[in-house]
Design brief:
alpha+beta; 2 domains; 11 strands
């Protein structure tokens, strides 16, 4: 290991995250401090029906603007089944249920400062079942786009969410490897 943890203390906690501060020693002997945000696993869902993709638009407080992205989120519960979480987020945010959920992979969200895994699923065979957003998600707006329009929004900067971009890259690689 190139960094040794000498001590660790929790600085802050709320239902969504924990912040800890670690006293560290680098491999060259230099001391330091490392702040780490800890969050429970989350899921991102790529809902596609024919050539239509379903997106969420919502206000993102840290950047003070509305953002267009794929449905994603967590339940602030450790050890939740990733597919159950993905199905739940899909239903909560879009009102859709999927007959098929295909696991595409897991990525670290922002491992330079946070400890959180995101499980990525492709959702197909979609049917409406009624949205059930969390209280914090009262302003969600469901949007649809063709695949070509969606990819255009990724390229022109309309969609800047790194999780959406990473998930779409993973999906495209998976699709190519499957010969689809």
């Amino acid at each position: 290991m190139s960094i040794k943890t000498l001590s660790s203390r929790e600085i802050y906690r709320n239902p969504w995250l924990r912040l800890r501060e670690d006293q560290i020693e680098r491999s060259n002997g230099a001391p330091g401090i490392y702040g780490v945000i800890e969050k429970d696993d989350c899921a991102l869902v790529i809902p596609i029906q024919d050539e239509t993709i379903f997106l969420i638009e919502q206000f993102r407080y840290p950047i003070q603007q509305r953002s267009l992205e794929l449905p994603q989120g967590g339940w602030e519960t450790a050890d939740v089944d990733p597919e159950e979480l993905a199905r739940g987020e899909l239903r909560e945010e879009t009102g859709l249920v999927a007959s098929t959920m295909t696991f595409l992979g897991t990525v670290w969200v922002a491992y330079g400062y946070a400890r959180q895994k995101m499980h990525i699923f492709l959702a197909t065979g979609l049917t409406p079942a009624g949205a059930d957003p969390d209280p914090e998600e009262h302003d969600l707006v469901l949007r649809t786009a063709s695949i070509a329009e969606f990819e255009g929004m990724l390229l022109d900067g309309t969609i800047q969410d790194c999780c959406t971009l990473a998930a779409w890259g993973l999906y495209r690689l998976w699709k190519e490897k499957k010969g689809l």
